[in-house]
C-alpha cells in the first residue's frame, strides 16, 4: 500500500514537472517516409545538449529507450533504436509504423523536454499504365489513328494515400492542357471523330498528394488524313512547242502521299500496271514528255497512294490527249477601203493549243498595229484588217499547235473593187426587166386576141349556162352593146391553160373593164350585174356541145344574140342623140347564133 502511494506521488511530481517544462519546451513535428525507407524522428532539437535519458512512446506503449550513460550498440536486424541525441530511427518503414510518437528526454539539471512527432508512411504512385486505342503502333512506339475515328484513353495506378490521376495533352496549339482528372485509381475518357488538331503527346500523370511524387506515362499520337478532293492535273507549255510539262498536285495529306504519273490502260484496280513515267513521295509531281511519246487519244493519269486509303482506292486525275482542230470560214470577201474580220475557233485540243494568224504561203507572222488588230474571245481568235486594199488579197492561215501536232485553217480573202455606177446599172437592169415582162405579156395577149370580145364589158355570172357547155370549169364574160342591142359572151376553158396565159388574159380583161366602165358612163345604158340569170330558155337550144380538141388547147365560144329594146330606151336614145340616117346594115335581121 505504501509503495503504491509512493509511486503515485512520484508520477504526480513528474507530470507536474513535465507540464511545467511542456509549457515552454514542447514541439510538434510531422514527417513523411516512403515505404521501405529509413525514417528518423527527432526529439530534442532546441540545443546541442545531449539528453541523459530519452523514451519514445507510441499509442501509450513504449517503443524504444536510450540512456546516454550506457549507450547500446546497434544490433543487426534491429529495426527501431534511439540514437545518442535522442532521435528514433526506424529502418525499412512499413505501413504499421505510421502514427503519432511521443518523446520524453531528461536533460542535465533534471530538466525534461517533450516532443510529439507524426509519422506518415507513403507509397507510390506505382503500377501506372496508360493505353490509347484503337491505334496502330509504329516501330518507334508512336501510335497512329485516322481522322474521323473514335479513340479511348485509359490511365490507372496505385498509391498510398490515394493518388491524383490526370490526362494531359501537349500539341501544336496547346501545352500541358488537362483533359480529365480524378482521385480514383482509374481514369478513362473517349474522343469522338478525331481531327488533325488532336495530334500530339498524351500523358497519364499519377501524383501522390502527400509525398508529391508523380509518375508520367506519355505516348505520341499521330492523326493520318487525306484531303477530300482529288489530285489536280494541269499542264504547262514548254519553250519547245513539241514538248509539254504535266503537273500533278495533291496538297493537304499527312503523311506525304506518293504520286505516280503513268499511261492509263483501263481500270486496273489495285494491280494497276500501266506504263509508269514517274513516281515519288511528294505533294507535287511534274513530268515532261515530247511529241514522240504522245499520241491522239492517249490517256495520262496521275494516281495518289496513302496509308490512310485502301490499296487500289487512291484518287486520281487524268486527261485524254487531242490534237488541235481550228475552224472558221474558208472564203471571205470584202470591198476596198473597208474592213473585214477573220475568225478562227479552236477549243478541242488537249493540251490547249497555241493559235496564231499568219499571212501568205510563207506564213509570215502577223504583227498587231495600225493595219491588223488581234483579239481573243474565249476560244475564238479574231484578226481585223483595216483599210483593205488589193495588197491584202490572198491566203491567210490560222495555225494551232500543241505537243501532239500542228494544224492549219486556210482562209482566202478576196478584195472587190467598188464602182460608182453600181446604182445606175442596177436601175437599168430593173427597168429592162419590167419592159421585158410587159413585152411578154403584150405578145401573149396579141396571140390570144380572138378570144376577147371588144366593146362595153360587163360581168355576168352565168353558172347555169356554163353547165350547158359540158366543160368542167370555165370563165364566162358577157357584154351588152346598147346601140346594137347585142350580148357578147366569152367562154374560156382553163382545163389545160398555162398560168402565164391566164394571167395575161385576166390582166387584159381588167384593162378592158376600165375602158368599158368609161363607155358605160357615156352610153348610160350598161348595168353591172353579178346575179345569175333565170332565163334559161333563151340559150337552151342555141348553145351547141363543142367536141373536145385532141391537141389539149383551150376552147373559145362566142355567141351573139339580139336583145329587143323597149320603147322607153328608144325614147331616151332619141332625146339624147341627133337624128341620123339609119345604117342599112343595121336594119338587117341578124342571125340568131354566130359560132367561131
Structure description:
- Strand 28 and strand 29 (380-385) form a beta hairpin.
- Residues 1-24, 453-500, 510-543 and 549-596 have low confidence and may be disordered.
- Helix 2 packs across helix 4 (499-523).
- Strands 1, 3, 4, 7, 8, 11 and 14 form a seven-stranded mixed beta sheet that branches. A six-stranded mixed beta sheet has the order 9-10-16-15-12-13, with no helix packed on it. It has a five-stranded mixed beta sheet with strand order 24-31-30-26-27, with no helix packed on it.
- It has 596 residues and is of the alpha+beta class.
- The longest helix is centred in the C-terminal third of the chain and has 26 residues, at 422-447.
- 16% of the residues lie in helices and 40% in strands.
Produce a short descriptive summary.
The chain has 596 residues and is an alpha+beta fold. It is built from seven helices and 35 strands.
Give a topology summary.
Layout: H1 2-22, E1 26-34, E2 39-41, E3 53-58, E4 61-67, E5 80-82, E6 88-90, E7 99-107, E8 111-133, E9 136-137, E10 143-146, E11 151-160, E12 164-171, E13 177-182, E14 186-191, E15 200-207, E16 214-224, E17 232-237, E18 243-249, E19 258-263, E20 275-281, E21 284-290, E22 299-305, E23 316-320, E24 331-335, E25 340-345, E26 354-359, E27 364-365, E28 372-377, E29 380-385, E30 394-401, E31 406-416, H2 422-447, E32 457-458, H3 463-466, E33 474-481, E34 486-493, H4 499-523, H5 537-540, E35 556-562, H6 567-576, H7 584-587
Parallel strand pairs: 1-8, 10-16, 24-31
Antiparallel strand pairs: 2-6, 3-4, 3-7, 5-6, 7-8, 8-11, 9-10, 11-14, 12-13, 12-15, 15-16, 17-18, 18-21, 19-20, 19-22, 22-23, 25-29, 26-27, 26-30, 28-29, 30-31, 32-33, 33-34, 34-35
Helix pairs in contact: 2-4
Amino acid at each position: 500500500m505504501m509503495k503504491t502511494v509512493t509511486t503515485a506521488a512520484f508520477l504526480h511530481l513528474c507530470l507536474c514537472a513535465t507540464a511545467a517544462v511542456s509549457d515552454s519546451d514542447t514541439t510538434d513535428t510531422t514527417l513523411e517516409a516512403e515505404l521501405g525507407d529509413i525514417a528518423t524522428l527527432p526529439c530534442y532539437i532546441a540545443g546541442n545538449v545531449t539528453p541523459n535519458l530519452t523514451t519514445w512512446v507510441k499509442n501509450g506503449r513504449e517503443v524504444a529507450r536510450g540512456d546516454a550513460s550506457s549507450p547500446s550498440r546497434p544490433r543487426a536486424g534491429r529495426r527501431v533504436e534511439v540514437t545518442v541525441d535522442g532521435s528514433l530511427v526506424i529502418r525499412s518503414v512499413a505501413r504499421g509504423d505510421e502514427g503519432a510518437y511521443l518523446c520524453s528526454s531528461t536533460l542535465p539539471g533534471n530538466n525534461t523536454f517533450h516532443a510529439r512527432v507524426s509519422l506518415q508512411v507513403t507509397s507510390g504512385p506505382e503500377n501506372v499504365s496508360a493505353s490509347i486505342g484503337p491505334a496502330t503502333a509504329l516501330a518507334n512506339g508512336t501510335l497512329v489513328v485516322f481522322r474521323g475515328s473514335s479513340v479511348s484513353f485509359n490511365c490507372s495506378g496505385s498509391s498510398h494515400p490515394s493518388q491524383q490521376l490526370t490526362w494531359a495533352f501537349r500539341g501544336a496549339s496547346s501545352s500541358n492542357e488537362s483533359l480529365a482528372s480524378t482521385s480514383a485509381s482509374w481514369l478513362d475518357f473517349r474522343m469522338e471523330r478525331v481531327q488533325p488538331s488532336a495530334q500530339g503527346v498524351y500523358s497519364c500523370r499519377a501524383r501522390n498528394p502527400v509525398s508529391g511524387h508523380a509518375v508520367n506515362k506519355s505516348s505520341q499520337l499521330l492523326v493520318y488524313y487525306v484531303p477530300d478532293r482529288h489530285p489536280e492535273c494541269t499542264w504547262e507549255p514548254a519553250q519547245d512547242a513539241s514538248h509539254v510539262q504535266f503537273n500533278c498536285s495533291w496538297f493537304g495529306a499527312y503523311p506525304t502521299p506518293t504520286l505516280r504519273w503513268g499511261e492509263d490502260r483501263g481500270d486496273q484496280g489495285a494491280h494497276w500496271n500501266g506504263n509508269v513515267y514517274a513516281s515519288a513521295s511528294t505533294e507535287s509531281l511534274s513530268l515532261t514528255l515530247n511529241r514522240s511519246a504522245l499520241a491522239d487519244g492517249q490517256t495520262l493519269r496521275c494516281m495518289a497512294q496513302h496509308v490512310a486509303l485502301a490499296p487500289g482506292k487512291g484518287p486520281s486525275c487524268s486527261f485524254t490527249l487531242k490534237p488541235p482542230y481550228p475552224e472558221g470560214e474558208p472564203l471571205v470577201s470584202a470591198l476596198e477601203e473597208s474592213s473585214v474580220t477573220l475568225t478562227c475557233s479552236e477549243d478541242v485540243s488537249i493540251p490547249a493549243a497555241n493559235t496564231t494568224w499568219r499571212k501568205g504561203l510563207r506564213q509570215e507572222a502577223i504583227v498587231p498595229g495600225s493595219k491588223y488588230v488581234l483579239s481573243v474571245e474565249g476560244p475564238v481568235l479574231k484578226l481585223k484588217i483595216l483599210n483593205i486594199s488589193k495588197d491584202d488579197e490572198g491566203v491567210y492561215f490560222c495555225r494551232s499547235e500543241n505537243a501532239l501536232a500542228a494544224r492549219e485553217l486556210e482562209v482566202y480573202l478576196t478584195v472587190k473593187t467598188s464602182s460608182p455606177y453600181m446604182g445606175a446599172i442596177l436601175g437599168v437592169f430593173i427597168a429592162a426587166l419590167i419592159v421585158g415582162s410587159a413585152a411578154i405579156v403584150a405578145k401573149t395577149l396579141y396571140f390570144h386576141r380572138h378570144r376577147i370580145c371588144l366593146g362595153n364589158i360587163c360581168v355576168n355570172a352565168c353558172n347555169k349556162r356554163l353547165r350547158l357547155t359540158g366543160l368542167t370549169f370555165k370563165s364566162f364574160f358577157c357584154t351588152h352593146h346598147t346601140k346594137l342591142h347585142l350580148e357578147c359572151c366569152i367562154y374560156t376553158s382553163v382545163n389545160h391553160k398555162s398560168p402565164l396565159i391566164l394571167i395575161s388574159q385576166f390582166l387584159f380583161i381588167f384593162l378592158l373593164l376600165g375602158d368599158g366602165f368609161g363607155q358605160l358612163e357615156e352610153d348610160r345604158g350598161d348595168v353591172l350585174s353579178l346575179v345569175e340569170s333565170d332565163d334559161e330558155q333563151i340559150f337552151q337550144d342555141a348553145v351547141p356541145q363543142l367536141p373536145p380538141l385532141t391537141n389539149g388547147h383551150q376552147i373559145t365560144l362566142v355567141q351573139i344574140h339580139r336583145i329587143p329594146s323597149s320603147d322607153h330606151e328608144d325614147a331616151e336614145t332619141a332625146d339624147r342623140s341627133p337624128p341620123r340616117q339609119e345604117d342599112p346594115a343595121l336594119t338587117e335581121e341578124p342571125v340568131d347564133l354566130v359560132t367561131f
